[in-house]
Structure formats: structure tokens, C-alpha cells
Amino acid sequence: MEQHGSTTAGKPKDTKFAFKHFARSIRPWRWMILLSVILAVGSAVLGLFIPKILGDMTNIAVDTYPEIDFGAIGRKVVVVVILFLASALLNYGQAFILAVVSAKYTEHLRSEIIDKISRLPISYFDKHKYGDTLSRMTNDVDVLTTTMSQEIADISLSVTTLIGVMIIMLSISVPLSLISFIAIPLSVVAVGKITKFAQKYFREQQNTLGALNSEIEEDYSGQIVIKSNSYEDTAMVHFGETNQKLAKAAERAQIFSSLSFPVTHIFTNLAYVAICILGGKFVIDGVINIGDIQAFIQYVSRFNRPITEVAATTATIQSLLAASERIFEFLTEPEEEPDAEPALKIKHIKGEVEFHNVCFSYDKKQPIIRNFSAKVKPGMKVAIVGPTGAGKTTLINLLMRFYEPDSGYITIDGVPIREMKRADVRRLFGMVLQDTWLFSGTVEENLRYGNQSASYKDIVRAAKSSNVNHVIEALPKTYKTVISEDSDNISAGEKQLVTIARAMVADPPMMILDEATSNVDTRTEQLIQDSFEKLTHGRTSFVIAHRLSTIRNSDLILVMRDGAIVEQGDHCELLEKNGFYAELYNSQFADN
Amino acid sequence: MWKLFKYLKPYWWQVIILVLATVAQVYTTLQLPALMAQIINEGIVPGDMDYIWSMGLVMLGLTALSAVAAFLSSFLSARVGAYFSRDLRADIFSKVINAGVSDLKQFSTASLITRTTNDVNQIQMVITMLLSMMVRSPLFCIIALIMALQTAPEMSWIIAVGVAAIIGTVILIMALVIPKFKIFQKIVDKVTLITRENLTGLRVIRAFNNEKLEKKKFEKTNNELTRLLIYVDRILELQNPLIGIIFNGATLLCSWVGISLLNQDFSYLGNMSAFAQYVTFVMISFLMMSMLFVMLPRANVSAERIREILNLKSKIKWQNETRGVPSNMASVEFKNVDFSYPGAAEKVLSDVSFVAEAGKTTAFIGSTGSGKSTLINLVPRFYEATKGEVLVNGVSVKNYNKKDLISRIGFVPQHGILFSGSVESNIMFGAPNATSEDVAHAAEVAQAEDFIERLPQKYDSHIAQGGTNVSGGQKQRLSIARAICKNPDIFIFDDAFSALDMKTDAKLRTALKPITKSAVVLVVAQRVSTIKDAEQIVVLDNGRVVGKGNHLELIKKCPVYQSIVRSQLSDGEYARELKLADKYMAKLAKEAR
What own/partner pairs with CB < 8 Å and gap ≥ 24 does B163-172 have? Predict the structure, then answer.
């Protein structure tokens, strides 16, 4: 089931951590960011002069009336045109640079994350949900980079405008300026308070929405159960309650978030009125000119937006830091131990595997494998049996070095695998698991996955001997047909055949197989069994066995129960022992 | 989209107040520049301080009025938007929950979820915006236009130029960018796909040492995305500077034209700056409206998807009261039943007939796609037979009241589905009046008692959403206990035993025997061992019944059954089964004689 990524809104837990890592990773682009800040400041400064010069035009007109000096005014017009064109150009420049930075930074973060995925130990992913990692890769990276570029532009523009406007206003008239400045602290405080409330309610809304989402998900995916138990009415009542809660929370969040605009509007409007009145008085008293008043009024209206923006910044920065924290939390997870250096190599593999007093636990508290020793001779078939959930995949995890033993060691042809490169160990095994993972690509590409240098002939040969050639030939574009994990042009059983063929193309000296084949029709089941036999022929192989024939024909059976290996031996020995295996065997296969 | 507006109906008076408040707000905001022009022309120029004061007070009054109106409209639009979407969501949910299984077959669960949540959110956002903008922007535009024309009719052409420039810019940029958005979405999907694959295929990728290959694949797409992003941004970022140029240009034009008109009429001194503000207002409202047109098509997609659900007409009609008298003896009978999915030519089931009696187990076996799961879905009327009749306790399912029929059936689906709550609430799911003894008994029969007793809070232990905190086998056992707790006439196990290991499977079947003495048991299975003891086995192949009988009979006479058994047993065992069958047949023959 698709996991919903946890919400990125909200507060970071460790602001310092979030900020430190963000600052460090953005460092390569610091000069470009600085440049765009300079351009933004320049653009804002240039824009600021426009109302002032427009006011000058009026002043010239009034002063020279009725013989208006159009020459002087014309020169001012040219200046204004140059100013706003230059301002627009700088604005575009800063926006474009930031867009490039944010795109490149996004690319960089994504590629860091994908790298990290390949370096983290498997245990990380067994403990964390895929959806969570995926949401860090998509949502969080998006939030981080878009808010970053937005905030850089907004803050530099707003702050410059605010300061510039203040300076110009002061230069026109100090008393008028002071009146309009009163609006600033009032607005900032009010908007700050409102944003804080809005945030609280937004979080509440987000949480309720999450609750509602899981309820819907649960009810929809459990439809059959609801219907077959006449639970519809009760489900409706539960849903109604959460739905009502969400409506309330959404209402509150919306009200508060839409309040900040009217509130700042009131303060600036008040200032506007005051300026009209007082300004009028000043003009009559001859303190300032009409043109100045006009310019001043334009500046006051320019005051409005940056105040709201600066006041709202704290909230966005928090969500930026929260996203940054989630990304860098992932990027700083401890990685797999590096390979031994210098690493040992096996030149000519015979395929002898030996477990020496291996102990293992997933969480240190509950030992899973205690002091397990066994010797597997070249070409032997080892069956791993036990009830569902007994931990049969644990042994495979250790063999493939997805996990490392707590103590003891495993050798192949006498070489401890810990001393080898992981890649070299894994190259020795072919793996066919119950989970038939195929990537979206053509059949041919999928078959070549374990051996990039395989020829087309090799591939067809492998497909034939794994009984899947006829299936592939029946596909619309045969070997060039695009398949994927959830594609329904081939059945689950056929997918398993493809993964068998994939292992055959790789042609490894040893095999690891999982026999479990649920949801496979009878005929395909036989084909799979047949291919398995071909695959294990002459190779040391480890099979998570479900079929009696496989188990009986094995040279060594490892019996697992509750995560531990409780018995080992061949079929006859184990039956004689009359222990857990015998019990298992009798209940499963034999007639009572 | 517009059809969803009927959900605003219960809030009509709030909508009306909202519109009025918006009108008031627009009117007052627009009055201010006019008053300012008057102050300049009739107060400042002649030096009339009293006039300035009185007009100043009027302005103050208007500001207060505008504030009240603004509060009112934000309050109301938030409220109406929130309740609008609450009602819409509730309707969708109710539709989905009450629709028949076959009606919903065309939608995936994920898509249903998106329609109930994301799509409603999209609509809510647009509705809230429409509520304030649909009235505000045109109104703003019209009033500003009128006032502009009143203050300085000679300058009205500036408005036309400004508006044309704004619309032109927006259209140009959208025309360049929107086609790229589709490609953009595709590449974003591909990045997600590769990341997903890297996570789900983790073990395979590492087993084949293909980390580098995957990385290369990812880098290619990642880079493609970056390049496209930069291209799109290069155009998109043009919008702000261009609009800035247009706004500034318009203001400049106003000043220039105003000044050149001063000689005709000195009142242009005040009027031109008022006019400049009106022009800005008009252009802003056009900008807003053009944004609306960009957003509407997207909301329309959501609206369509929602309406697909709301327009669902259930094909299955239930009776208000059960017609006829169901027998006290449990039974299920299929009479020449055909089934095909709506619109599909191929039959999933054809001419299926059998009788399942009380106290006996009837098992269905066959390869994937043979129709065995579909068959049992006809009993609780999740699907409706296209031909023939399905009888439960002697009465056709079509004559049942919904609750009456469902209460007779204990259905265990293929995958153990649990709901968040406690162990107990899950077992009591279909039997709200069950006592704690009933619950414990059901758990015991379902072989769930052992692990429940080991849980920290036993029956009160918490079950997480989707039952993720219990294992697959445990989930399945709880879901079996849920069916047992209902004490139904008919048990249906849809391949419910395959998640259990064979030992538990066997124990469970033994424990079930006494409580199913007077019940019909229908079992779909993959494993021969699960159904060997069934009194009746129905073998399905391509939707047809190709064999009916018990295990030993079928092993002798049904080739499809033979091949199934052969694939699951070793040669030696198969031979032994054959021998048993021979003995059994001989015994039958003797009895017949």
C-alpha cells in the first residue's frame, strides 16, 4: 500500500542541525546567490525612484504653469523609462539566476539521495517505509528548493524596498514619514500574531486531514469486509465525526490565514488618510509641494506588501528548515561499513560454504541464530524449511552480506566472506526470490540485468531453458516489450520465470532460491519447478523450500522455528529424530 | 464544475452576505483615490483646510467600513469553503461505501482515495477563490473603470492599452510554458519511478551489483529534468518583470498625458494620480481573472473525477424487506449461473450449478483466472449473476434485504484486512453485540488465542491502520475469527488459508468442524491439502465446472484435478493417493451392488 509521506509542514526538531547542513550543502552556489541578492537589491532601488521622479514631473508642471516646461518633463520621462526597464532587467536576472541555482541544487540533492540509498545498509530499509524515503526525495526536496529561491528573492526585495521607501519618504517629509511608519510595527506585530495562530490551526488541519486520509484509505481498502459485515452505517458515523473536525479546523486555518491582508490594509489605510489630511495642511502652510504629496502617497501604498511578506517569513523559514532536517537526517544516516582493504578474492570457485559458530540478531535483544555451524560441500542442495515467519530469509541475508553476523563467520572455499568485497561475494550467487522484482524496461533489458555483456543469443537460450521463451514470444513486441513490476501483460508466475531466466543469464556459480509460489496456476507452477531444477543442477544452492520433493531430495535440511535454526540434517535423519521437523512434516504432508 | 455549485445551496444566505461584503469592500477601496483627488483639487489647491478635515473624516469612515467588510468576507469564504467540502466529501464517501463491489470495479482504491481527498481539496481551493474573486475582480474592474472614466475620460485609452498588454503577456507566457508542463510531469513521474524501483528492488540491485547502472539511469533522467526546469523557469520568470514594466509604463503614461492636459483643465492635477491608481486596479483585476482561467481547467478535471463517483448508479437493487421465507436449514445453491463483467464479451462463469448443504464443506479449486473467486462473490451479491439464480437458504439473493442476507454470511477475504482499533473491536466487527466470551471463543477456533494472549494487553491490544503491527498469518487468523464471531449460516473462505502455514491450516480446519455443524462452508483454495477432506470439491476451468465430487473420486475421473494434485505432491505420494482412490472406488462399487 502506498505510504503517505509524513507532512513536511511544521517545526524542525533540531534547528541548528537543519540549518548547518543546509548551509553547507548550498555552499557551492553561494556566489551565485549573492549575485542574485545584489541584482534584487539593485532592481528594488531603481524601482524606488520612479514615484519620486513622477512627483517631480508634477512639481515642474505646477511650477511652470501655465507655460509648462515640457522639455524638462520629457527628460524626466526618459529617466523613468530607463529606470523601470533597468529595474525589470535586473529583476529578471536575479530571478533567472535563482531558478538555475534551485534547479541545480535540486538535481544535486536528488543525486545525493539516490547515492545514499545505494550506500545504506539493507537494515535501514527493513526498518523504514519506502514511502518515507520517497517523500524525502520528492516532497521535501521540492519544499526546500522552492521556498529557498522564493525566500531569497522575497526577503531581499522586501527589505530593500522597505528601507528604500523609508529613506525616500524621510527625504520628502519627516513628520509625514513618522506618521506612516507607525503602521509598520503595528502591522508586523499583528501579522506575526495572526501567522502564529494560523500556523497552529494549519497544523491542526494537517493532522486532521492525515487522520481522515487514513480512515478513508482503511475503509476503502477494506470495503469487502465492511460490506460483508453490514458496517456501512457505523463507518459513515465515524467518517462524519472526523470530517466535521476537519471542516472546523480548515475553517479556522483559513480565517486566520486570510486575516493578515485586511489587517495590514487597515493600518496602511489609516496612515493614508492621515497623510492626506496632514499633507494637505502642510501644502497649504507651504511646507511641501503638491507633487511631493502625490509621490508620498504612492510610496505609502508600496509599503503594504513588503510588510506582510517580511512578517510572514518566519513561518516559511520554519517549513524550509523542517524539510532540510528530513533530507539531511537521511543523508547523515550511518552507512554500510566499507569493504575490507585489501580484499581477498577467490580465483576458481568450487562452491564450498561453511558457517562457523554464527550468531545473529536483528535488534541485539532477541538472538535469532545461535552458534550455528554447518558445512556445505560443493554442489550440495540445502533446503531451509519452517513455518511462515520463522525467519528463513535471515540466512540468505547473511550469505549475501545484506546483514553481518554478530559473531562467528562464513567462509566460501575457505575464504571468510567478510574479508571479501561485497560485490565479489554477491557475484557468486544467483538469487530468485518470491518477490519478483522487475524494473520497467524491455524484457531483454530485464534479462540482461545480471550480465550486461550477455548476447541476444544467450538471453534467448536462458529464456528457453527457463520455459519462458514461449510467453515472451507471445508478447506484442516479444523481447522488446516493456514490462514492469505492476504491468499486467504477464502473470505473477511468468514474472517468476523471467527472474529465473535472469539468474540463468548471469550464470553464477551458486544459487539462492525461494520456492514459495502462491497465486500461480498449476501449469506455470510445473514450469517453475522444472526451471528451478535446471538452475540448481550442479550448483551449490540454498532453497527456501515449500515442496516436499525439493525437501526430500536435499542434501541438508535446515529447520527454522521462531527465527532460530532448531534442527539440521537430511530428511531421514530428521524424521528419526522425531522433533520439530517430524511434527512439521507429519502435519503438512502425511495423511493422518 | 458548475454542477457542484449546488453544494453551496445550504449556505445561500452566507454567500449573499459574502457578495454584499465584497461589494462594500470594493466600493470603499475605490472611493479613497477619488476622495484624495477631491482633497487635492478642492482642499489643497484653494487652501481650504476645513474641507480637507471633513473629507478626511469621510475617508476614515470608509476605511472602517472597508475593514469590517474585509473581515466579514474572509470569515464567510473560509466558512463556506470548509463546509462545502465537508458536504461534498461526505457524499462521496457515502456513495463509495454504499456502492456495490461491482460498481467500483472500474476504480482502483488509490484513485477512489484521491477523489475523496485531493480532488475535493482542489475544488475547495477554487471555490474559496471563486467566492472572493468571482465577485471581486469583475466588480473591481467595472467600478474602477467607471470611476476612471468619470475622473478623466480623455485618458481612458491608457486603460485599453494596459489591459491589452497584460492579457497579451499572460497568454504568451502560458502558451510557451503549458505544453512543457505535460512533459515536465512525465519526467517527474519517471524520477519517482526510478527512485521507487531503487527502493523496492534494493536486494536484487545489490545482488547483481547494479548500483552504478541504476545511478547512471537516474542521473540521465535527473539531468533531463533539471534542463527542462531551467528552460521553463527562463520563460516563467519573465512574467514578473514584464508586468512590472506594464504597470510602471501605465503610471508614467497617466502622468505624462495628465500633465499635457493641464492647460485645458487644471483639475487634471488631482485627477491624474487618482486615474493612475484606477488603471492599476483595472490591470490587477484582469491579472487575477486571467489566473482564474488558468486554474479553472485544472479544477474541472477534479470536478469531473468527483462527478464520476457521484453519478454512480448502483446496478444491484436490494429489497426493503426479504421476500419469501428463508429456510432454517442453511444452504447455497447455484442454478445455471453465468457471469461476465459489464461490457466484457467473455464470460467469467458459465452455466455453473451446484448445491452446498449444511454441515458440509464445498471447496473450489482451479488455476488462476478459472473464476473461483468470482463465484463466491456472487453469494453476498458483491457481483450479480448475469444469468441463472443464486439461492441462499432456498431464497434467491435478489429477494433479500441487504442486512438480512449479509448477516447470514461470514466472509473471509483472501488478504487479512484489519481496521485500526483493538483486537477485540476487530473480532466484533460484524457482531457488535458479541460478548467477550464469544470473542474469546472465536479467537480460539481461529487459532489466534495463543498470540493474542502473548500480546501485552491481550484483547485490548492496539491494531494499527491496515494491521501493520501484526504478521500476515496473524492478520488472517483474526479475520477468520471475525467471521466466526458472527455465527453465520454460511462461511466463505476466499483462499483464506494460504497465508497460514500448513500446520496451522490443519489445526484450524479441525477446530472449525464442530462450529460449522449446521453451517455451509465454502472454501476457495490453492493447496490440495486444504480441501482434501471437503465433502464436495468443485473443479473450475475457464469458468466452467469440469468436475464435482470428493477428493478420491476426482483423482480418478477429473483430468484437471489430477494435474493439480500431481503438481503438488511427489510421485510416490501421488501413487499412494491413486491407490487410496482405487480402494475407495472399489468400495463404492461394492456398496452399489
Answer: B163/B282, B163/B283, B163/B286, B165/B246, B165/B249, B166/B243, B166/B246, B166/B283, B166/B286, B166/B287, B166/B290, B167/B286, B167/B290, B169/B239, B169/B242, B169/B243, B169/B246, B170/B239, B170/B287, B170/B290, B171/B290
The class level of CATH for B11-310 reads mainly alpha
In this structure, are A145 and A31 located in the same domain?
yes
- Residue closest to B470 by CA, chosen among B450, B488, B498, B442: B450
Find, among B405, B434, B403, B94, the residue nearest to A230 by Cα.
B403
Residues of A in contact with B368 (CB under 8 A): 491-493, 519-521
The CATH fold of domain B329-408+488-549: Rossmann fold (3.40.50)
CB contact under 8 A, A239 and B85: no
**Three-class SS state of A383:** strand
Counting residues of chain B whose pLDDT is more than 90, the rounded percentage is 0
Side by side, which strands form the sheet with A407-412? A367-376, A353-361, A407-412, A415-416
**Average pLDDT of chain A to the nearest whole number:** 80
Which three cell numbers mark A380? 550440495
- Residue pointed to by grid coordinates 517468476: A496
Residues A197 and A269 in one domain: yes
Q: Which three cell numbers stand for residue B68?
A: 469590517
Which residues in chain A are closer than 8 Å to B47, comparing Cβ atoms?
284
Is B244 close to A433, i.e. CB distance below 8 A? no
Q: Which of B49, B259, B370, B509 to mutate to test the interface with A (most CBs of A within 10 A)?
A: B259
Separation of alpha carbons B87 and A240, rounded Å: 10
**Confidence band, pLDDT 50/70/90 cuts, at residue A90:** very high
Indicate if A123 and A184 belong to the same structural domain.
no
- What's the pTM? 0.70
Q: Which of B11, B84, B113 to mutate to test the interface with A (most CBs of A within 10 A)?
A: B113
Residues of chain A contacting B244 with CB distance shorter than 8 Å = 47, 84, 87-88, 91
A84 CA: distance to closest CA in chain B (Å):
6
Q: Does B108 touch chain A (CB under 8 A)?
A: no
Q: Is B433 on the interface with A (CB under 8 A)?
A: no
> Residues A17, A132: contact at Cβ < 8 Å?
no
Confirm whether A300 is domain-assigned.
no
**Is residue A190 located within the same domain as residue A227?**
yes
Segment B127-137, tens digit of pLDDT: 877 777 777 78
| Spans of all domains in chain B | 11-310, 329-408+488-549, 419-484, 551-593
Whether residues A153 and A60 share a domain: the answer is yes
Q: A511 in a domain, yes or no? A: no
Q: Is B142 on the interface with A (CB under 8 A)?
A: no
Asked if B506 has any chain A CB less than 8 Å from its own CB, the reply is yes
Q: Which of residues 411-470 of A touch B (CB under 8 A)?
A: 422-423, 426-427, 429, 431, 433, 437, 439-440, 449-450, 452
pLDDT at A592 over 60: no
List pLDDT tens digits, range A150-165.
888 888 888 888 888 8
Q: How close A281 gets to chain B, by Cα (Å)?
A: 6
Query: CATH number for the domain including A136?
Result: 1.20.1560.10
Q: Is A258 inside a domain boundary?
A: yes
Are residues A193 and A262 located together in one domain of the fold?
A: yes
Quote the percentage of chain B above a pLDDT of 70. 95
A61 located within any domain: yes
Nearest Cα to Cα of residue A413 among A400, A398, A428, A402? A428
CA B593 to chain centre: 64
**A95 with A166, same domain?**
yes
Nearest CB among A223, A235, A449 relative to B210 is that of A449
What is the domain count for chain A? 2
Range of the domain at A130: 13-172+317-336
Asked if residue A474 lies in contact with residue A468, where contact means CB atoms within 8 angstroms, the answer is no
